[in-house]
Amino acid sequence: MIEAANATETRICLLPEELQVLEDPRTPSLIRISYGIVLPAICCLGIVGNILNLVVLTRRNMRGIAYIYMRGYSAAALLAIFFCIPFALRVLIHKETGRWNNWAQAFYHAHLELFLGNGCLGVGVMMLLALTVERYVSVCRPGQHTRPLCGPPHLTVILIPLATFLVYLPSAFRGEITTCLLAPGGPVIYQKRENQSYLDSMFYQVYKVVLEMVFKVAPTILLAGFNLRIMVVYRRSCERRRRMTLSRTVSNDEDPRTFAEERRLVLLLGSTSILFLVCVSPMVILNVTLRESNLSHYPYQLFRALANLLEVIYYSITFYIYCLFSEDFRNTLIRTLQWPWGKNSQGGRGLPMRRSPVPRPTTTTTAVATPGHLTRASV
């Protein structure tokens, strides 16, 4: 114990300011712009949007199975954005090694920072996947499954976070805490560094690749495939409904709404799949190649900043996608914001739902949900 104490006393801290000598001169300005300006602005939009998501998705008319998964996704995205803030502050102020007087703060950044942030992002991906699977079954395999394929929704949204954080648990040990002194006889300072022996182990080398396959690559392929199939089936249903409408010589007032609804859904399914691919795929490369030795290279720092920004953007724009593509969501949002100040708050509670004066030719209604939308289509 005495030898260990003496070793600690003779070790002088390598401060973040001293590490800048080894950095590319362009790196500090990149970090300042990316993590000090752009990322906080995106996080603010994401926090406001996901809070409004949760407010709207808990309204009385948002009680379906799809809305349960959408609430779970919004909650996971909101937590992930909150955990992104201390990560950005650490990179911006404390750099990679850090310099903390408090052991608990050092422990958080060394062991919990990436574990909690990436775990919440993984929960969001699994919520999207469960939501899309359920909608695929209801739209493309109607009547074949009388119960939700993923199990009871309320139980599933509890099991998904438990299983996800359990899978992400090994990533909590990729860092370790070291102690040093600012000056001989000065106070003890805590810093973080990579657990190099753990990162070089065969277990972790295999684990990080499997992790990215499970939570990034496979969901990207499945979401694109399920959304494409839903889009094809929905367009066929719209064609049948259009032919039935024409054969019954009903007023053509319904056709523009049908075309608009179909166009919105097609754009939504295509855009969400492309956005997920573009915004999440760079993180696969980053998480597999993330090492302190790579952070000294400016191109890698640039790629790291872009990958982090793109992923945060994806989980921050959900609310705005809902507002853009879902009429039901917009109407519910307006009624929620109007109450209790709206003119119709006494009894009516805000904006009434728009309904077509022309009766639908069929009466079976199927909810078509995607990772960012739920629209109702008669089929």
Automatic annotation (TrEMBL):
<feature type="transmembrane region" description="Helical">
    <location>
        <begin position="213"/>
        <end position="234"/>
    </location>
</feature>
<feature type="domain" description="G-protein coupled receptors family 1 profile">
    <location>
        <begin position="49"/>
        <end position="322"/>
    </location>
</feature>
<feature type="transmembrane region" description="Helical">
    <location>
        <begin position="68"/>
        <end position="93"/>
    </location>
</feature>
<feature type="transmembrane region" description="Helical">
    <location>
        <begin position="265"/>
        <end position="285"/>
    </location>
</feature>
<keyword id="KW-0807">Transducer</keyword>
<feature type="transmembrane region" description="Helical">
    <location>
        <begin position="305"/>
        <end position="325"/>
    </location>
</feature>
<keyword id="KW-0472">Membrane</keyword>
<dbReference type="InterPro" id="IPR000276">
    <property type="entry name" value="GPCR_Rhodpsn"/>
</dbReference>
<keyword id="KW-0675">Receptor</keyword>
<keyword id="KW-0297">G-protein coupled receptor</keyword>
<dbReference type="InterPro" id="IPR017452">
    <property type="entry name" value="GPCR_Rhodpsn_7TM"/>
</dbReference>
<dbReference type="Pfam" id="PF00001">
    <property type="entry name" value="7tm_1"/>
</dbReference>
<keyword id="KW-1133">Transmembrane helix</keyword>
<dbReference type="InterPro" id="IPR053093">
    <property type="entry name" value="GPCR-like"/>
</dbReference>
<dbReference type="GO" id="GO:0004930">
    <property type="term" value="F:G protein-coupled receptor activity"/>
</dbReference>
<feature type="transmembrane region" description="Helical">
    <location>
        <begin position="154"/>
        <end position="173"/>
    </location>
</feature>
<protein>
    <submittedName>
        <fullName>Putative G-protein coupled receptor</fullName>
    </submittedName>
</protein>
<keyword id="KW-0812">Transmembrane</keyword>
<feature type="region of interest" description="Disordered">
    <location>
        <begin position="344"/>
        <end position="367"/>
    </location>
</feature>
<comment type="similarity">
    <text>Belongs to the G-protein coupled receptor 1 family.</text>
</comment>
<feature type="transmembrane region" description="Helical">
    <location>
        <begin position="33"/>
        <end position="56"/>
    </location>
</feature>
<dbReference type="GO" id="GO:0016020">
    <property type="term" value="C:membrane"/>
</dbReference>
<feature type="transmembrane region" description="Helical">
    <location>
        <begin position="113"/>
        <end position="133"/>
    </location>
</feature>
